[in-house]
Amino acid sequence: MTSAFDDLSPQQQALVDQWLPSAIVEKNHSWGLVSTTVLEVTHAGSRFIVKAGGEDDHHLQRELHAHHHWLEPWTSRGRAPTLVHASADAKLLVTRYLPGDLVLGSAHADEPSTYRQAGDLLALLHAQTVVTDDDYERRENEKSLGWLGQPHRIAATTVQRLQAEIAAWPTPPATLVPTHGDWQPRNWLSCDDVVSVIDFGRAAMRPAFTDFARLAAQDFRRDPKLEAAFLDGYGTDPREKAAWYRNRVREAIGTTAWAYRVGDEPFEDQGHRMIAEAFSSKSR
């Protein structure tokens, strides 16, 4: 093992040795704010991604579930990485390396064609199965109230308004589909102008419009042409006004409190802006 594997647990290191003996780390793609380690490695002339969760990780199980149940519409087209090895117990997986550069920070992040492809890919994911959940809205309200009960820098008067609003919200049955959970250019790759998808650690059954949330707070906000292209690719707009507002508020709360917890001040600032903009949209 090279020293680049030191962030993996002994169990994880042993499994990588078993699955990819003498693998060489080419690049560390770990984000740094969470306990997940992501390594690009070579073995026997092929390239792989090794992804390992830390002790407090809750995302590898979701990622494995997505690989086993939801990614075939993408992997069959070469638009998502293929799972090669996995251990849920060790919080470890290995996928084949998917070529491409992150869309985030590249010229592709400003190209409507990128968003049209992303909309088309998302529609494939969402179309696989649909369920009705009578308790989804109540659970999400409880999560938001839980965030508000943790340390954060949301103003006390704003917290009071948020708590009062959430307490008054209806909790109708929700239509859920498989969602990515972090659908934005940070998790898209572009290779020869073809968009692919990575990182399924937040994949879960949710309303389809929840996968619009990160884009609406960032990319759609700065360029309406990107939103129009995305909707063209997706085929419809599932954002019913009242449910979309509730989701915007929940996303804003979670963004602000989570970013404060991990020390990501720019993302925390975005969360405060999201709260203000959600309130503003309701008054219009």
Automatic annotation (TrEMBL):
Residues in Aminoglycoside phosphotransferase domain copies: 35-243
Gene3D superfamilies xrefs: 3.90.1200.10
A Pfam entry, by short name: APH
Family matches, as SUPFAM superfamilies: Protein kinase-like (PK-like)
Protein name in the entry: Phosphotransferase
Organism: Paractinoplanes pyxinae
